[in-house]
Amino acid sequence: MSESTNTESSRRDFLKAGALVAGVTLGPGVLFYGIAHSRAPEEGASSAKRWGMLIDTTKCGDGCNDCVTACNTENGLSGKTGPQDSQWIRKVDIKDLRSGFVQSLPMMCQHCENPPCVDVCPTGASMKRADGIVLVDRHICIGCRYCMMACPYKARSFVHEPLTDQNPEVPRGKGCVESCTFCVQRVDRDEQPACVEACNTKSHQAMIFGDLKDPESAVAKALKAYDSVEVRADMGLNTGVRYQGI
Amino acid sequence: MASIRTWMRLALLAGAAMIFAAPVLEASAGVDLPKIEKGKGEKCVEETQFMRRNHMELLKHHRDETMRKGIRTTKHSLKKCVECHASEKTGSVAASKDDFCASCHRYASVKLDCWDCHATKPMKKPIQVAQPSPRMDLAKESVK
Amino acid sequence: MATNEYCANKQECKTTQFWLLLGLGGLIVLSALYAFFTLEHHGHVLTGMNNQVVWGLPHVFAVLLIVAASGVLNIASIGSVFGKSVYKARAPLSGMLALAMLSGGLAVLVLDLGRPDRLIVAMTYYNFKSIFAWNMIFYNGFFAIVGLYLLTLMDRKMNAWSKPVGFVAFLWRLGLTTATGSIFGFIAARSGYNSALMAPMFIVMSFGYGLAVFMVVQSAMYYWNDQLLDVNVRRRMKNLLAVFVGASLYFTIVFHLTNLYFAKQWEYERFILLDGGIYTTTFWVGQIILGGIVPLILLFIPRSGGAGSGKTERICFCFLAPLLVVLGGLAQMYVTIIGGQAFPMPLFPGHEVSSTFYDGVVASYSPSKWEWMLGIGGVGIAFLLTVIAVRVFKFMPHDDFEELKMRRATD
């Protein structure tokens, strides 16, 4: 079974490589198209990609909450902000204590390469997909909340109440831990996460999402062009979300 | 190796069948069989008899494939089950006791916790596979 | 009924009192079960726990019970592994208490899960990189090993095995407490945890909490049977308790002193030691004064009165001091577990941080009645199991005083 998958994927790789060569000769427009339309449904996430994001805090508006609203709508969150309510993405206001410089930025699961939540999860429910997206497998999450203890970004929420009327694409329920999924349901059909889409629709353009491993992707190019940092770099987690301007 | 496992599984199944067959047969004499609402479309993705026995295996396999590997085929996906089998009346597979999943599981008294997290109703509007949002290739252009 | 009562110590059956105790324990356990089913139905929305303080009062009780469970086994280890006969006579009681308390602690931990119905998942899917998963292995193994150990202690035919099995149990319990301490020690993200000292500190504290629980239970059993614990045995145990309490204080001091040397930990230390409100109070009054200094005074001061057999002294040694140590343990767990979460994580060092998700502020937590019921229920389970076990089996220590006298000459 696994062997056949391997041959299958190597055959696919070969075909892709062929397409790439053809693409180069046929011109950049076609090439972009070829890479962007990457996956058939049966193909699954591949480690040839790593999804990531660059957030430009200088473009992120103080008081703007569009990414948060879009996330809530897409994923069916209530939008309430009590201590027990889920928040997958939140706006954080920071003020430099020495200079008084004030900034605002969105904070969510940073989709680390070495995620502490995955390390500490006793059952393996906390997991990282091949393409770098960190998820909670709610089928085997026992709700121990140890991942919430371990996450340096406070990115995770615990569902404290029974839920109804979930988005069919985003199953979530009482007693499990959840967090930003990079809108995996959208990414898997080649769309951008809801927050990024909202940010771009309102033409703030503060968030760029894409494949960090593809040197031609917008996010990789931007990362190469500008200086950026990861939050809590001291932890050495190699986050998938990076910030510029802080 | 695999064949040994298969045999062991068969043996287990046979054992389980022997244990469970008697009471089920007994029960079927007294309790009415569930009235199962017909789904949309011509037929199911597999034979009805096969589905009756194996739907949980298919779903479990598919859930792991989708959840952990990102494989999003639709043939055995729960979402597709719901799309076809949601009741005409309630629009759901488990809202009332006569809905598709609920009726049979109540009869077999097997508790299922799919619906703690998964929606029991199909998507309100189908996903537009055309290009409703800025695509990644378009985003690429915008950076330049 | 009265003619055919069964109890291990036939002369002192006290059947009515036994049923009363059983009823009391049963009520506590029932209330915990009620709390469990209520939470299972409505979700954790009924608790004071939230997305900032994710582990609350139930975990304080659970971790204390688990740590004390591993510590109480120490009595048996001193007997079997280090060959002290006073402790050997107490080994069965110690092993039984360890199992009872671990049961109580684990029950609370499991009943507080978001999906307790998936316990089977926790037992079948292991992520071996997770220290939490290792804890589960240690807990399960503890039941097996200590169970076997009890068998070797109580079955004459297997007596010869008690030393090697006791040794394995000793190592296992060290492993277990190391793993429990590391649940917190391995959390790199939070200022209050993230320390290799957590594991050894938990071990030393477990010695104290375990011995304290043992002394209270033992004293209660002697009282129940109208017997007096030999003054020398009592004195030995209180000296040992004093050593453990002192060592716990020492570790606490080193832990905070180390933090005070790291500039990045100053904020956390200021929070715990100076202006953390309930956590500062709990630390100083609960953990340090009531759980450390007062017991030490109680254990040493009355001695000036004379031979050490007075009634006040007995109460101080046997009940008051150990009870305070356990209370201090509760305070310590509260400060460690909840204080460590309430203190905001340093997301952007050098910045003032605020958000709708309570970044940059001390998280608020006030336990609801359900959490109290669940937590105390864990103690109830341990109590109930102990009451029953003590009734049905011979766990009352039997000292061989002749041998003791001879030993004392050589000690």
Structure characterization notes:
The complex is a heterotrimer of chains A (246), B (144) and C (411). Chain A is an alpha+beta fold and 246 residues long. Chain A is 30% helix and 16% strand. In chain A, helix 3 packs across helix 7. Mean pLDDT of chain A is 88; it is low at 1-5 and 27-36. By secondary structure, chain B is mainly α. Chain B is built from six helices and no strands. Chain B has helices spanning 2-30, 48-69, 78-85, 100-107, 114-117, 136-143. The longest helix of chain B has 29 residues, at 2-30. Chain C is an all-alpha fold and 411 residues long. Chains in contact: A-B, A-C. At the A-C interface, strand 2, helix 4, helix 5 and strand 6 of A face helix 5, helix 6 and strand 1 of C.
Task: Give a brief outline of the structure.
Chain A has about 250 residues and is of the alpha+beta class.
Descriptors:
heterotrimer, A: 246 residues, alpha+beta, Alpha-Beta Plaits, two-stranded antiparallel sheet, 8 helices, globular, C: 411 residues, mainly alpha, Formate dehydrogenase/DMSO reductase fold
Question: Uncertain segments of chain C of ≥5 residues (pLDDT<50)?
Answer: none
CATH architecture of chain C: Up-down Bundle
In terms of quaternary structure, the protein is heterotrimer
Describe the main β-sheet of chain B briefly.
Answer: none
What form of chain C results from the Cα inertia axes? globular
**Molecular shape of chain B:** globular
Q: Helix content range of the residues of chain B, please?
A: 40-55%
Strand portion of chain C, in percent? under 5%
The CATH H-level superfamily of chain C is Formate dehydrogenase/DMSO reductase domain
Strand percentage of chain B, roughly? under 5%
- CATH secondary-structure class of chain C: Mainly Alpha
